[in-house]
Amino acid sequence: MSSSSVVLNRSSRSSGHDDAPEPFLPPEIIENILHRVANDNPELTAALLLVSPWFFMSLQARLQEVVVLIWPSTSLKFLDALRSQPNTLAKAVKALYISVFIDRGIAAQILQACSGVTDIACWLSDPFALIGMAGLRPQHLALPIATGHSPSNIINFNKPFFTGVTHLSIAEDSFLWKQWDWTAFRLLPKLTHVQLQLPILDAMHPESAHASVFRILGILPKLEVLLFHFLSRTRGPGTMAMTGVEAYCAGLRMLGDPRCVFRAAPHPKTIRKEVQETAFRQWDRWRWAEEVVEEQKRELVMSGPVAFF
What are the boundaries of the region Disordered (predicted)? Predict the structure, then answer.
């Protein structure tokens, strides 16, 4: 983007003001506005592209960096685009979100083609059969775990695929995280952020969860954020059920350690809007969690640690 200013003309101007300076904004500011709008409402991005070629040029790189595949038809079109631009589009994609509705064979071809991906969210069952065969080195990784299994039982963390993972999000259908063999996570040398996406039906009491959380933090002392993301199948934050979930999370506080953060949200696998937000706002979520951690650290300094009995 050129550093020269982009002039925004008024639609009309009286002849007496012909010598007045043209209003303008630097292109960096305009580009930032467009990206903020696209981030807040991904569906609006497509509409912005139709406004002018300049909008398209500004947002094209963003669209190529973050790819959200929700429906099979979308995945087929994206695979065709990869085949037509193998040396440009495949390397441009940095974040790839694959929903539970995508065909495994198509997903495998896309993962193998996108060599530059550093942020992967794959909601297909047994995702390791797919992502493990791709020569990728992701930094952010989100995936489901089959009911009744521990990640250490089905994941070989010794594989090169996991050497660069710093942010790991795990979703499971049963509340078994307290029985996992967390020592296996030591094989992830750069891991600093862990998110557990759990159904709200598996409510935990502070007293019972305290020991399990501290065992995790003891095994993984380099963790900076341990985010518990309680998932509800309700439609939005205004419902009575979601209000209760949010109050429940507030009651858990930090479990005595400022690195513990609790959040409530609708389930991303079943609600289309939240599927998009999960992919587009993952960085925002981690930043939010980091801000909460810093705030909780300040609280502990002022009030002292929380005691559990």
Answer: 1-23
